[in-house]
Each structure stands twice: as structure tokens, then as C-alpha cells.
């Protein structure tokens, strides 16, 4: 079991939510104070270094034109961490390669980070959230297909060592591809891909890549994990090892339940701050017509209304794990067993106004008192056993999905 | 008035076409809202013309061929459509995005067209790099879009009363519109250098209150086609055929007489 510590690097010093229409895409950057930005970037880098000191691995990501995430270029943050850290795995989840113009550049950047870090890169690829379509000026149409073609080109660039090749595909064409450097890890850095539904698991399982799921919670986790496991078993004739699956949840551990809840409430900023009007969350071609229609109706998120699910709702849903070390262990264990097991916990440990001290307390308690027990939990069973046990459990549909899950689970 | 609808298989893809009326052909290329074959304006036009109204692939529940990435594929697809429909000496009318398509087709070869009518058409860049010639319809709230698109926003379709199925159809059309117009947004940077090839008499018909593409844009667009005439329709927005149907049809008839 690995735990990757994650913050989305928010710029949270914003005017009251009523004063702006959207936190993404068109929030004027007059709201961004470069002095404050300088502090925040360095603060976040310090947090990651602190996470390494507690034995955790590190995850970062990127978004564009948004105060929810100050990092429009994840490779820049990761290249700093490649130098500042020495032990932790570095998960970049992920490169939005459906929107990138030039996959060769991504292959080069990732190879560089892998070499600088001496082979510690875990390289994620994502289609990108819907709000990225306008900033990237890339149509959302067939984004998944485009992502997989870019993936093929990057893999070929990483693994070709005998001189140039051409790649002339449906969307991407390049000549004389011959990247310098090549990756440190051979034949290639581990690849991670996000999965949002049963239909997205197959190519991930086919490549034996790590399939990561964000905030699908109890309502959808088994549909996706089971899909991956079924595909993997069918294609490779063996059960998918635990380390092929990852789940991202918000985690806050406190010395007391009251303190933990206080911290977790602050973490929920990540969700409540996501004020995005329907037209940004519904770019043409991202969602199929029936879902696009629901968003147009404002029935499912993205309607400009902040998502206000309570902490209890989010905990019941399996999106947030919060409490004392014992409680958090129990919560993650329950979810882990229900899901059929996974080998990578992606811990969103800081968001919004969670302070440095609160972050460190939670991180430390998790690392020292929760994480070791999760390792034991994983070691106590096998993927086949855990899957069987999961299948025997009743489906928990009592917590409805919200718009957030719709947009982030993909 | 009776109409027929058929789906014609082409070498690549297929096209669904509605036909109404008898007389000279009028090829009606619809805009981003999808086919207007059921709109009363078509009944009026069909008093004089055989109105041939295809649905562009992706609109009105039709399929988008796998190789389509945008307007260039639609233009080439329509070269096959013109063959399949035996378009000959037709009035070519294009509305909004369909106007862009019409301008592209007419600039490739105008021989099949007797007249060209572009209605609140998009397709070219008029201003400088930072001028927003065409409002980003994918980046504004629906009520704001209605204000820009209609002289009287009350004429806009009330989405709140639509069934889930009807709303999914609207969403489907929006997806197709996005495919054809996303990048470069609603225009082809190369088109202005081709428009001199539009040799048929050309009329720009424009809703005077169009806030999506203004009459200034329309006039500058018209100036790119030799001899093109520009007529603004009062008290009409981006869909003058809908807000001022009589006026619109009279202008069309006057131009095609």
C-alpha cells in the first residue's frame, strides 16, 4: 500500500462567492496577488517535502485559469520536487494529454523528471475536466480517443532507443521523434490513467496501467473497480494486483473527533468553492447528450450553485474520511473492503483554509497511526479474496451522486 | 404543405434531407440550432421553391462520421451531398453556421448555384486578433445568449418547458455545433482569400438587432464578396426568418425574382 499526499494548490484568498460568477475560466486574475502567490507556491512545496519526511509519496496535478489550482503546469512543480526530495514517488496525475498540442513535449518533460529524480516518477495521463475545454481551446469531442493516441505516441517515444521514428496518427503527427533524455525507469515510468466509468476501464487494464478513481464514493466505486478487475483478469489471465488501483478521497485525521471534523469541514472548501456555471462544465462533446441536457437543466451540478453537501453526506458517500486515527482507519477499511481493495490511497490532505499546522497534524497522525494499519490490511488478503468478499456485500446506493462526482469521476 | 424526409447513403456517411414544395431548388443550410424544416418560413419559401433542407451530420439525432473533426470535413462531405441531391441552378441559403458552410461551398465552386443568400452568417474573421467578432456562445449563460440572439428575448425557446427527450435533442445539436465551430472559433482564417470566387449574385440578410454577429460584421463580410448586397431586417435578431418571417421571405423573393 502506498499513500500519495495531495493538495491542489488553491489560491483561496478570494472575494465573497456572490461577487463572482465562476471560480474557473473567467475569474479575472486581478484577484491573484503575485506576492501571495509567491508565498503559496513555496508553502505548497514545503508541504510536499514535509509529506516525504513522514514517509508518504507525493501527488500533484494541474488545471488552467482557475483559483482552485494555481498550477497550470504540473511538470514545473514536479521538477522542483524531483530535486527537493529524494525518496518519495512523484505522481503527476495528470498530464491532460487530450488537450496538449504536442505529446512529444510531454514525453520529454516526463523523461527529464524521471532522470532528475532517479526514477521516482509515476506518470499520469488524463482527459481533463470539462472546464479545461475553453482554456485549452481544444474541442471536448472525442477527448478520450485523443488521449489514448497521445498516450501511444508518448509510450513509443519513451521506449524507442534506436533512433528516430515517425508517428502519424488520427490526431497527432510528428516526424523524427527521438527524445533526449530517455526515461530513467525502464522500459518506461509507471503510467496512471483516471477512470470515470465502466467504459473507461478497458484500455487501462489492457496496458496494465494503474487505474485511478477520484471521489466516486460508494455509489460508483465497484462499477469502476470491478470493471477494471474483470478486464484485467480476462485479458491477462490473472487477478489485477492491488497496486493497479488507486482511490482519491479527502482525508483529515485529528487528535479528537471534534478537531478532525473541524479540519474536514475546512477541507470541504475544495468542493464548496467549486462555483462553476453550467456553460463551463458542459462544453459541447464532453458529456453525452442526455447528461449534457441534465446539466443544461441545472439538475446536476454545474448550475452555478455551489455544492453544499454536508460533511456527513460526503463521509457517507465515501468521498471524505475524517476522525481520530481509529475512526479514519475504520472508514477507509470499510470503503477498501467494499471496493474490493486498492493499493494506492490518494490523500487529499490540504485544501482551502486548512492551515500548515492542521495539515501537519493530520498528515502525521495518518502516517504514524493509520497508514501502517492500511498496509497490514492489504497484506492480510489477496486481490482474489478481497474481490470475493466485496461481491458478497450489498450495493450501497443510499447516497446520491452529485454534480461534483459527475464532473470529477471520469 | 406536404413534405418528404429521406436518408441518403453516401460513399462516406449519410444525409437526412427534408423536401417541401415544387419549383426551382432552394438548398437551405441550417444553423447551430438544427434543422428548421418544420418552421413556418419553409412553408412560405416552398410556395416558390422546392426547399431542400438537409440536417448536417450530428444534428437532429443523426450520426457524425468518425473522421469528422470540424468544418473542413463538413464542407467536403457536402460536395458529395450536392452530387447526391442533384443540386443544379439552386438558390443556396445558409443561416449562421450554415451560412459559413454555404460561403465555403460557393467559394469552392459556384457553378451549381444561381444565387447565394447568407443569413446572419459566421465564418470569417473581420477584426484584429483580440476583437471578439463573434460572441462565444459556449461561454455565456443561456439567458444572455437569448438577449443577444433575439430582438425580443421572449421569442427564444423556453427550455424549461421541454421534455427530457426534447432537451437531449437540443443538447445533441449543441454538441454538433461545437464540433464544427470550436477551433478556430466559428471561422476559417483562410476563407476571406477565397470569397472572391463566389460569382453568383449574393445577398446578405441580417437581423438588425443581432448581438451575436452584428450588422457591422455582416457588412464587412459582404464586402469580401464582389457585388454582394446587404439588407438589414428591422426588429429581428440572429434568426430574422423567425422573428420577421414575412419581411424575410419578401426579401428572399425579391432577390430571387
Provide a descriptive summary of the structure in words.
The complex is a heterodimer of chains A (410) and B (257). Helix content of chain A is 44%, strand content 15%. In chain A, α1 packs parallel to α14, α3 packs across α5 and α13 packs across α14 (356-379). Chain A has a single domain (2-408), classed as Alpha-Beta Barrel (TIM Barrel). With 410 residues, chain A is of the alpha/beta class. Chain A is globular and about 60 Å long. Chain B is built from 8 helices and 8 strands; from the N terminus they run βββαβαβαβααβαβαα. In chain B, α6 (215-222) links the parallel β7 and β8. Chain B is α/β, with parallel strands linked by helices and 257 residues long. An 8-stranded mixed sheet of chain B has the order 1-2-4-3-5-6-7-8, sandwiched between helices. Chain B has a single domain (3-256), classed as Alpha/Beta hydrolase fold, catalytic domain (Rossmann fold, 3-Layer(aba) Sandwich), CATH 3.40.50.1820. Chains A and B meet through α10 and α11 of A and α5 of B.
In short:
The complex is a heterodimer of chains A (410) and B (257). Chain A has 16 helices and eleven strands. With 410 residues, chain A is of the alpha/beta class.
Amino acid at each position: 500500500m502506498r499513500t500519495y499526499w495531495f493538495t491542489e494548490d488553491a489560491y483561496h484568498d478570494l472575494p465573497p462567492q456572490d461577487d463572482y460568477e465562476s471560480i474557473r475560466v473567467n475569474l479575472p486574475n486581478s484577484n491573484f496577488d503575485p506576492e501571495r502567490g509567491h508565498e503559496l507556491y513555496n508553502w505548497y512545496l514545503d508541504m510536499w517535502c514535509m509529506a516525504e519526511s513522514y514517509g508518504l509519496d507525493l501527488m500533484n496535478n494541474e488545471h488552467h485559469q482557475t483559483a482552485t489550482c494555481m498550477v497550470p503546469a504540473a511538470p514545473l512543480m514536479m521538477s522542483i520536487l524531483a530535486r527537493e526530495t529524494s525518496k518519495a514517488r512523484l505522481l503527476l496525475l495528470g498530464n491532460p494529454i487530450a488537450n496538449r498540442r504536442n505529446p512529444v513535449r510531454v514525453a520529454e518533460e516526463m523523461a527529464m523528471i524521471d532522470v532528475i529524480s532517479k526514477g521516482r516518477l509515476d506518470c499520469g495521463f488524463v482527459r481533463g475536466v470539462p472546464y479545461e475545454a475553453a482554456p485549452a481551446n481544444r474541442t471536448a469531442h472525442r477527448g478520450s480517443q485523443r488521449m489514448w493516441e497521445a498516450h501511444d505516441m508518448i509510450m513509443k517515444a519513451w521506449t524507442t532507443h534506436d533512433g528516430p521514428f515517425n508517428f502519424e496518427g488520427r490526431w497527432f503527427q510528428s516526424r523524427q521523434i527521438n527524445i533526449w533524455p530517455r526515461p530513467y525507469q525502464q522500459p518506461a515510468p509507471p503510467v496512471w490513467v483516471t477512470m470515470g466509468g465502466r467504459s473507461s476501464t478497458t484500455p487501462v487494464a489492457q496496458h496494465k496501467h494503474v487505474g485511478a478513481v477520484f471521489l466516486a464514493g460508494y455509489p460508483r466505486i465497484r462499477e469502476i473497480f470491478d470493471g477494471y478487475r474483470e478486464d484485467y483478469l480476462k485479458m491477462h489471465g490473472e487477478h489485477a494486483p492491488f497496486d493497479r488501483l488507486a482511490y482519491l478521497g479527502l482525508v483529515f485525521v485529528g487528535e479528537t473527533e471534534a478537531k478532525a471534523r473541524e479540519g474536514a469541514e475546512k477541507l470541504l472548501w475544495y468542493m464548496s468553492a467549486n462555483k462553476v456555471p453550467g456553460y463551463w462544465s458542459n462544453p459541447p462533446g464532453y458529456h453525452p447528450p442526455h447528461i449534457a441536457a441534465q446539466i443544461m437543466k441545472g439538475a446536476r451540478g454545474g448550475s452555478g450553485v455551489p455544492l453544499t453537501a454536508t460533511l456527513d453526506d460526503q463521509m457517507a458517500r465515501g468521498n471524505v474520511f475524517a476522525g481520530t486515527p481509529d475512526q479514519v482507519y475504520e472508514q477507509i477499511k470499510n470503503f477498501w473492503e467494499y471496493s474490493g481493495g486498492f493499493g494506492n490511497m490518494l490523500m487529499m490532505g490540504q485544501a482551502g483554509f486548512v492551515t500548515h499546522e492542521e495539515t501537519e497534524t493530520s498528515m502525521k497522525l495518518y502516517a504514524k497511526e493509520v497508514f501502517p494499519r492500511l498496509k497490514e490490511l492489504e497484506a492480510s488478503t489477496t486481490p482474489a479474496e478481497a474481490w470475493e468478499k466485496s461481491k458478497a456485500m450489498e450495493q450501497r446506493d443510499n447516497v446520491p451522486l452529485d454534480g461534483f462526482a459527475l464532473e470529477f469521476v471520469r | 404543405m406536404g413534405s418528404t424526409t429521406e436518408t441518403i447513403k453516401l460513399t462516406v456517411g449519410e444525409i437526412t434531407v427534408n423536401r417541401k414544395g415544387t419549383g426551382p431548388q432552394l438548398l437551405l443550410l441550417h444553423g447551430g440550432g438544427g434543422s428548421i424544416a418544420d418552421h413556418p418560413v419553409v412553408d412560405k419559401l416552398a410556395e416558390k421553391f422546392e426547399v431542400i433542407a438537409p440536417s448536417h451530420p450530428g444534428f437532429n439525432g443523426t450520426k457524425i462520421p468518425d473522421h469528422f473533426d470540424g468544418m473542413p470535413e463538413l464542407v467536403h462531405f457536402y460536395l458529395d451531398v450536392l452530387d447526391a441531391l442533384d443540386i443544379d441552378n439552386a438558390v443556396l441559403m445558409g443561416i449562421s453556421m450554415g451560412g459559413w458552410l454555404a460561403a465555403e461551398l460557393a467559394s469552392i465552386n459556384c457553378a451549381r448555384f444561381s444565387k447565394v443568400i447568407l443569413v446572419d452568417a459566421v465564418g470569417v474573421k473581420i477584426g484584429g486578433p483580440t476583437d471578439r467578432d463573434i460572441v462565444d456562445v459556449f461561454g455565456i449563460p443561456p439567458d444572455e445568449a437569448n438577449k443577444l440572439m433575439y430582438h425580443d428575448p421572449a421569442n427564444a425557446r423556453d427550455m424549461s418547458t421541454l421534455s427530457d427527450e426534447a432537451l437531449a435533442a437540443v443538447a445533441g445539436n449543441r454538441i454538433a455545433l461545437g464540433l464544427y465551430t470550436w477551433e478556430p472559433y466559428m471561422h476559417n482564417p483562410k476563407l476571406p482569400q477565397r470569397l472572391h470566387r463566389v460569382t453568383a449574385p449574393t445577398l446578405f440578410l441580417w437581423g438588425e438587432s443581432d448581438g451575436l454577429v452584428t450588422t457591422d460584421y455582416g457588412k464587412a463580410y459582404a464586402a469580401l464578396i464582389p457585388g454582394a448586397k446587404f439588407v438589414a431586417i428591422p426588429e429581428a435578431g440572429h434568426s430574422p426568418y423567425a422573428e420577421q418571417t414575412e419581411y424575410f421571405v419578401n426579401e428572399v423573393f425579391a432577390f430571387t425574382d
